Amino acid sequence: MSKRILVISSSPRKGGNSDTLADWFIQGARSAGNQVEKVNLVDLSLNFCRGCLACHKIGHCVIGDDANTVAEKMGQADVLVFATPVYYYGMSGQMKTMLDRANPLYTDQYQFRDIYLLACAAEDEENTVEGTVHGVQGWIDCFEKARLAGTVFAGGVSALGEIQGHPALQKAFEMGKSIQ
To answer: How far is CA 166 from CA 12, 18, 131, in A?
Structure first.
């Protein structure tokens, strides 16, 4: 049965390394017959969460920007995929802003169960991605029916396009292809 997969790319560079990693995941997921939509946060207007919690009462954020549309798509997806560059050993600010703005999902009937993380960094030590994984896991922990289903990390890539030929691309493709 085909899954509805939403890939959220938080790279500030179109065609950047984490964005490319997302594209390989998408190719794999589509080759398995899944429906995939990609959202590039760089194309959208996202404001910071105000912490007012009005979303818990009215079911959506009171800020009238693109985050409401993305959060709605997140709630309707079977699978979520977050792609981010690693900055200062954590996720990009764009991704953190979107996770904060997805707060209305906390009290909603969300569809997603499996969540994947794709991350790239200039540093290539395995522990480089730990802060990013921890941040995403903290968000996932608020959704009792969801789990972190997999992570792909591409270390040692910084300049635009430097990920070409990196083994993480194939790993992302295979991970996407494994979604049934």
So the answer is: 20, 12, 22
- The alpha carbon dihedral of 150, 14, 134, 129 has a sign of positive
Q: What backbone torsions phi and psi does residue 108 show, to the nearest 5 degrees?
A: -100, 170
Q: What whole-number distance in Å separates Cα of residue 86 and Cα of residue 163?
A: 14
Q: Domain 4-177 class?
A: alpha beta
What does the domain layout of the chain look like in residue ranges? 4-177
The tens digit of pLDDT for each residue in 123-159 reads: 999 899 999 999 999 999 999 999 999 999 999 999 9
Both tokens of residue 171? 């790993």
Match 């990609």 to its residue by tokens: 38
Rounded Cα gap, residues 57 and 118, in angstroms: 33
